[in-house]
Amino acid sequence: VQLVESGGGLVQPGGSLRLSCAASGFTFSSFGMRWYRQVPGKERELVAGISAAGGMTTYADSVKGRFTISRDNAKNTVYLQMNSLKPEDTAVYYCSRHGEYWGQGTQVTVSS
After folding, report:
1. What separation, in Å, do the N-terminal and C-terminal C-alpha atoms of the chain show?
2. Residue 82 forms beta bridges with which residues?
3. Cα separation values, 57 from 9, 49, 51, 110, Å
4. Is 90 exceeded by the pLDDT of residue 98?
5. pLDDT tens per residue across span 25-39
6. Is-contact 39 88, C-beta < 8 A?
């Protein structure tokens, strides 16, 4: 199983970023996927999840209405569209297959 995140970077408050996670080594369309984030010194936080077929999604209260998780099973990729970003969204974002396997993470920094 391999998960490779991309799309992180530095953005101003109120801006947007789209994270991508390319998956390989398993039947992507058979598994729910999740995005987590972690700030140094704090526990990893579940940000969003999506079911295998993409019909069901869930979000942390802190990101509801601002973030959207989606997936393209033909491309073995899961996305996290992040809008109206706030400084408190600054973290390393991780893609995960059901909390079992993890990518290397991508840094998102929201700062003016």
Report:
1. 37
2. 17, 67
3. 25, 6, 6, 25
4. no
5. 999 999 999 999 999
6. no
Specify the 3-state DSSP secondary structure of 87: helix
Look at the alpha carbons of 61, 4, 11, 39 in this order and tell me if their dihedral is positive or negative: positive
Nearest to 19 by CA among 86, 87, 91, 94: 94
Question: In the predicted model, what is the mean pLDDT of the chain?
Answer: 97
Residue 4: how many CB atoms within 10 A of its CB? Answer: 14
Separation CA 38–CA 51 (nearest Å): 22
Strand 17-24's sheet: what is its strand order? 2-6, 17-24, 77-82, 67-72
pLDDT tens sequence across 16-72? 999 999 999 999 999 999 999 999 999 999 999 999 999 999 999 999 999 999 999
User: Would you say 69 and 95 are in contact if contact means Cβ atoms under 8 Å apart?
Assistant: no
Half-sphere exposure (CA, 13 Å, Cβ side) for 9? 11
